[in-house]
Amino acid sequence: MNYDQARWTHDANGESTADQYEPLLSEKNTEEVAVDSPLPDDLTRDSLELPDLSEPELARHYTRLSQMNYGIDSGPYPLGSCTMKYNPKFTEDVAALADAAVHPDRSDRSVQGTLALLDGLQDYLARIGGMDAVSLQPPAGAAGEYTGILVAKAFHEQNGEGEQRDEIIVPDSAHGTNFASAALAGYDVVELPSGDDGRVDLEALEAAASDRTALFMLTNPNTLGLFERDIGEIAGIVHDAGGLLYYDGANLNALLGQARPGDMGFDIMHYNVHKTFATPHGGGGPGAGPVGVTERLAEFLPAPRVRERDGGKEFELFDPENTVGKVHGFEGNWLVLVKTYAYIARLGDEGLRDASAKAVLNANYLASQIDYDIPFGPFHHEFVASAGDQDAADVAKRMLDYGVHPPTTKWPEIVPEALMTEPTEIEGKETLDQLADAFNSVASEDDETLESAPNRTTARRIDQTSAARNLRLSWHALEEEE
Amino acid sequence: MSFDVPDDRKYLESHEWVAVTDGTAKLGITDFAQDELGDVVFVELPGEGDDLTAGEEFGVVESIKAVSDLYSPVSGTVVGVNDALADQPELVNEDPFGDGWMVELELDDEGELDDLLSADEYGDQIA
Lengths: 482, 127
Description:
heterodimer; A: alpha/beta; 7-stranded mixed beta sheet; 3-stranded antiparallel beta sheet; 15% strand; globular; B: alpha+beta; CATH 2.40.50.100; 6-stranded antiparallel beta sheet
């Protein structure tokens, strides 16, 4: 497959400017419009330049911009750890229904359908995670982590051990958010080095766990895609020390319908609904990171939660007895939760189990087809290959020339020049073969070719160093340069 | 590739150096460290008057590849900070043992220097 990304440039004042891409909408066919305003003169302008475009001209503008971009509708997106799971378009339709637009201050009685959906989602998530109670309020995965830590803190405080238990243990392969959430909640972070097989080193955990341990945070399968098969012993060590076990839901998509964190001994977990149940990544927009807990911790969850009344005929909001309070407005980001519910309901038990199985199958098939070394295994839904003598960042740039998005690079650091790859369940064999071809072509290329890449994309090699040293964080910076 | 390891100073396994003249010590990171990090884009340093403890973190260096903690080879009080790094973090790459220095300390105990690696020992570590 050959690839050349579109490159729309434009002529300004008859001069061809190759570096000038499709102009801003505000620069197109502008027409000066006089404004007559009753406001005081010093608050108004006399005239305003507005673009005057027909519908097709407007549509072409956005089509051109999208052609110069790369997204899931252009090709595969195997970013490991981020899980760029495909969001089926029907979930957008569901969230756009007029019935989904509800004011959060309406009375419980007048929004029974909304509450029924939230109650149903709490149950779905509890059942999927093997948890007893769920809060839908946290607005993102990291906010879920923080909420989970607050719950653990409230539990230890109730037992009179709040001050004594001032440490949270985190494996060195964990997502950075684990360390950040623990620090933000005021805990000392104890970093646990991985064992030689890339998993939790039981002896190291034994040595780290003590009467100061509040929580041990773990992702399973872990960041290398490896299942922590000693999870029973791990739970035993943490619980014997009086600590709680936290499940980071980052990789739950590998376990759907196959295994449940609650059955493994985890006490608290968060669900990354964007990674597991097809909602958009937060990235500045609204997200959701529901938190599930076992029975003994339910009383500490954020308020409000939803419950049935009168044998399921009605639903109501309530505050858990010893709640940690609110971590977001109202019941959380409602429309994200609607998408989550729609996805789970559409797939059902069989569909979720199948999605999980295919995610693992796809990762293993792709891994079997590529020439790069994969030091750790057997893995689940993602694998971490090593670019060896090549620079992983250059490999990523060069893969763009083959019309595919590269994997996550240079992390986790336990694998040198890491290429962290997660094709997800959505891609078929033809696309996986296209990805494998891209990996293998790049693997056989010389440094010169890699360093000059990408050559077939709209924007060529970006100067990352200048971008990081000379931060321009708002459009005001551009104006000042002019 | 071979890296500079000047023999007028002492080293820490985590790739920091310390050079002492007349009771004050300058700290920085080694040529090997800057090469591993790649282009440095930000350096976070303590303020004057802060106390540093040998073996503990005193700052953070950020490159386009990674964010790393800085460890102090010795204990002492900060008497000078290389303010130039705020606008020119590239000095760490260009001249790690000279203009890329990070902080200046008044030493608590010169005896601590005996616990550090010599240029030869550090050179062997990165060979």
